[in-house]
């Protein structure tokens, strides 16, 4: 049977590569003043902030540590902390 | 059914029975009659294709690329400057392994601008990864169009195919052409069944960035596919002959080569003139034959060697030149004999540039000269009065 | 801790965009607003390079990259093929390109796609220079930004021209929908993508995307910088339907352009060199002209 000839890739296979290793600081969700506005989820360039019910987290396998979520959180409920590996 | 029609109409008629889903082209002399005829077929409802008028040949090639990626059978048509403008896309289509078919009405390239026939356009595109078929007459180009889809769409091949025929000399010539009925064409060329295409049902990514870790293998596979397509090109030609009675494709055509001491190699319509000269020589008792290259890429070096291994003199007459060296075909023919015993003398002549007629007399003189001496990249029928009275 | 149920984006993580990339953010928002039944093309550029390093791809929809300048023509081919194959209800077609691919090298194919009326949404990710090749100027680089091919120097203030008016050029093709958006206002961006896709015919959406690398701002400030661009009037956010402006994002409190320029090292020379104040006035004039022209206040 014919084999597929062109160079193609499977959908979403980029997940095999973990960009979390790029990071020097990570976002810590204090889960203190969270209002469930979900702005952090919305503004993450990599789409790796998940959660609900005032409990959010960044998937640290992929979070690049840009800090946009910290900057944009309207209630200062996320902070960047230096990561010791 | 035989009909006397213009070469451009022959191509349009062939494409009509191939039922491409998408046609996109940009007008350029001498290709225009082909796209005009196809447009009229679509306008009259005789051909159910989407005909996309574009802003350039670059756009045309890109539109058929996108359509082919979506699983459509596609067609485009161009020549000369248009082909050169497509060049970037041509490489891309081949690398993506989409079986697009285009017809090229071969024409000289600028500067100086010249709208008449030679082969510089398509020969320049020989390294793109496209299969290149070259027709001698309008029946051949008609037949090759049908064969082109069969070859390219074979999943083991998955390569684009360029069918070449001489601008003006053939595009505008009226010849009898045996036309194939739609139902027979459908039997020979069933609908295209792509292995992979753009669809949300299987959301693949095409056209990736491939780094040094993987790039070499993509080129290797392309090279292998080209090499392997030689068999498919021949098989398809045999199958076509079985169904329609004509062997009008394949790799090469041998003409009176049995016991020939001298063989003339050519592509395209000039082969007709050469065959006439061969006939004259044969009548005089001289053992001269001819070999027509029907497939320039993949290059049929085995077929050429086996056809010419007993010949003493090879004369290559070609309508293009790799400036600073010699005709491309000359170099490649020499390569066929590298490392072999009994190497023939191989001479190269540049003929018919920018539409200059080639007379039987010129062909005859050229052959006689090359039998006596080795000639490299000689321009036939050079007008000395236009270059200061003598060779530069 | 058990991870809660997650909804992953149609642009999967693991791609190699810089931290804080405005273009990656825009692409993710746009794909999620548009998908999953879409077929997407992309021009050569950052977006294509960071997302499709073989053998991996971040895209979860059928996706193709061909060349730098033909994203719109390839999309046109896809659209007509779907029609010819009787599959037009299978997917909507989206073409993507950066500012260089859109306004410079690909403008011919884009114009053809508009003129022929293909049912394609074209997205221009405007990060205002050729970032993929190392921050060279494009037709959408703003006035006096320093790029590697329009550097500030002893006798230069950087880029000599202002942004090519691509939305107006698109609208001049009489296409039904043209809009600008920005990663600064994500809800607005989502809304415009959905609206565009509800309209048949060619659509043009130009999305302002800060580039932390090329603009030299802190990666955490991507959204702030994008919002500031709007609030100064330098980046007007509007919609044009059938050639007429039908909505604009009003500026509540106008910010002086200095506040925007100061955030980015590409404008640093304006604050360092003697005579910079005069140049900043010229940039303020561009912002003020936009405010007047589009009725931003």
How does this structure look, described?
The complex is a heterotrimer of chains A (85), B (392) and C (297). With 85 residues, chain A is an alpha+beta fold. Chain A has helices spanning 39-43, 68-72; strands at 8-9, 25-29, 49-52, 55-58, 78-82. Chain A has a domain at 30-82: Alpha-Beta Plaits (2-Layer Sandwich), CATH 3.30.70. Chain A is 12% helix and 24% strand. A two-stranded antiparallel sheet of chain A has the order 2-5. A two-stranded antiparallel ribbon of chain A has the order 3-4. In chain A, a hairpin with a 2-residue loop joins β3 and β4 (55-58). Chain B folds into two domains: 2-244, Thiamin diphosphate (ThDP)-binding fold, Pyr/PP domains (Rossmann fold), CATH 3.40.50; 252-386, Rossmann fold, CATH 3.40.50.920. A seven-stranded mixed beta sheet of chain B has the order 3-2-4-5-7-6-13, with helices on both faces. In chain B, β15 (345-350), α12 and β16 form a beta-alpha-beta unit. In chain B, α9 (270-283) crosses α12 (360-372). The model of chain B has no long low-confidence stretch (mean pLDDT 97). With 297 residues, chain C is α/β, with parallel strands linked by helices. Chain C is 38% helix and 16% strand. Chain C has an eight-stranded mixed beta sheet with strand order 2-1-3-4-8-7-9-10, with helices on both faces. Chain C has a two-stranded antiparallel ribbon with strand order 5-6. Chain C starts with 21 loop residues before the first helix and ends with a helix. Mean pLDDT of chain C is 96; it is low at 1-5. Chains in contact: A-B, A-C, B-C. Chains B and C meet through β3, α3, α4 and β9 of B and β1, β2, α3 and α5 of C. β9 of chain B pairs parallel with β2 of chain C.
């Amino acid at each position: 049977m014919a084999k597929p000839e062109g160079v193609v890739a499977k959908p979403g296979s980029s997940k095999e590569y973990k960009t979390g290793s790029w990071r020097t600081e990570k976002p810590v969700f204090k889960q203190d003043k969270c209002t469930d506005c979900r702005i952090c989820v919305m503004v993450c360039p990599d789409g790796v902030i998940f959660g609900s019910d005032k409990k959010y987290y960044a998937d640290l396998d992929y979070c690049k540590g840009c800090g946009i979520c910290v900057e944009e959180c309207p209630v200062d409920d996320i902070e960047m902390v230096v990561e010791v590996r | 059914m035989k009909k006397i029609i213009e070469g451009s109409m022959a191509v349009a008629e062939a494409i009509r029975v191939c039922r491409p889903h998408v046609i996109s082209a940009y007008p350029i002399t001498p290709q225009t009659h082909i796209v005009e005829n196809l447009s009229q077929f679509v306008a009259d409802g005789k051909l159910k294709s989407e005909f996309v008028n574009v802003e350039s040949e670059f756009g045309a090639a890109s539109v058929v690329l996108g359509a082919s990626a979506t699983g459509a059978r596609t067609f485009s048509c161009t020549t000369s400057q248009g082909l050169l403008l497509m060049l970037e896309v041509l490489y891309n289509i081949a690398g993506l392994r989409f079986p697009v078919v285009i017809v090229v009405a071969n024409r000289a390239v600028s500067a100086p601008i010249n709208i008449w026939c030679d082969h510089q356009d398509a020969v320049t595109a020989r390294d793109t990864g496209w299969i290149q078929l070259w027709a001698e007459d309008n029946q051949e180009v008609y037949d090759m169009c049908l064969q082109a889809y069969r070859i390219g769409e074979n999943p083991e091949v998955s390569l684009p195919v360029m069918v070449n025929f001489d601008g003006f000399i053939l595009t505008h010539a009226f010849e009898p052409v045996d036309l194939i009925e739609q139902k027979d064409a459908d039997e020979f060329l069933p609908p295209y069944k792509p292995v992979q295409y753009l669809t949300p049902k299987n959301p693949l990514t095409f056209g990736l960035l491939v780094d040094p870790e993987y790039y070499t293998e993509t080129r290797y596979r392309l090279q292998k596919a080209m090499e392997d397509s030689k068999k498919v090109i021949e098989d398809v030609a045999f199958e076509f002959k079985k169904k329609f009675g004509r062997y009008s494709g394949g790799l090469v055509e041998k003409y009176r080569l049995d016991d020939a001491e001298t063989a003339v190699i050519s592509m395209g319509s000039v082969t007709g003139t050469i065959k006439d000269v061969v006939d004259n020589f044969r009548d005089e008792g001289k053992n001269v034959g001819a070999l027509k290259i029907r497939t320039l890429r993949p290059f049929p070096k085995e077929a050429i060697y086996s056809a010419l291994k007993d010949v003493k003199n090879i004369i290559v007459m070609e309508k293009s030149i790799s400036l600073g060296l010699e005709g491309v075909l000359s170099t490649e023919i020499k390569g066929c004999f590298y490392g072999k015993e009994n190497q023939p003398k191989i001479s190269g002549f540049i003929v018919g540039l920018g539409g200059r007629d080639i007379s039987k007399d010129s062909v005859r003189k050229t052959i006689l000269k090359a039998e006596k001496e080795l000639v490299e990249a000689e321009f036939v029928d050079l007008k000395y009065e236009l270059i200061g009275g003598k060779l530069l | 801790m058990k991870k809660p149920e997650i909804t992953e984006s149609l642009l999967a993580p693991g791609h190699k965009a810089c931290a804080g990339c405005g273009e990656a953010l825009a692409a993710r928002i746009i794909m999620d607003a548009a998908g999953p039944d879409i077929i997407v093309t992309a021009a050569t550029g950052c977006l294509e390079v960071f997302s499709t390093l073989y053998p991996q791809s971040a895209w979860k929809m059928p996706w193709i990259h061909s060349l730098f300048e033909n994203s719109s023509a390839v999309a046109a081919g896809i659209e007509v093929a779907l029609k010819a194959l009787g599959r037009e209800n299978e997917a909507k077609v989206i073409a993507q390109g950066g500012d260089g691919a859109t306004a410079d090298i690909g403008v011919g194919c884009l114009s053809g796609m508009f003129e022929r009326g293909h049912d394609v949404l074209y997205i221009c990710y405007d990060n205002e220079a050729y970032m993929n090749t190392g921050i060279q100027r494009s037709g959408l680089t703003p006035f006096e930004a320093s790029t590697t091919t329009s550097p500030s120097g002893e006798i230069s203030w950087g880029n000599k021209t202002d942004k090519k008016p691509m939305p107006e050029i698109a609208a001049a093709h009489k296409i039904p929908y043209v809009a600008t958006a920005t990663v600064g206002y994500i809800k607005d961006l989502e809304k415009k993508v959905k609206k565009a896709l509800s309209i048949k015919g060619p659509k043009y959406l130009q999305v302002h995307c800060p580039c932390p690398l090329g603009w030299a701002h802190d990666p955490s400030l991507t959204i702030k910088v994008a919002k500031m661009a709007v609030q100064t009037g330098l980046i007007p956010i509007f919609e044009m339907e059938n050639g007429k402006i039908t909505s604009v994002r009003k500026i509540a409190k106008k910010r002086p352009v200095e506040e925007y320029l100061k955030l980015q090292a590409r404008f640093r020379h304006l604050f360092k060199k003697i005579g910079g104040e005069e140049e900043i006035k010229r940039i303020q004039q561009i912002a003020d002209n936009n405010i007047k022209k589009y009725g931003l206040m």
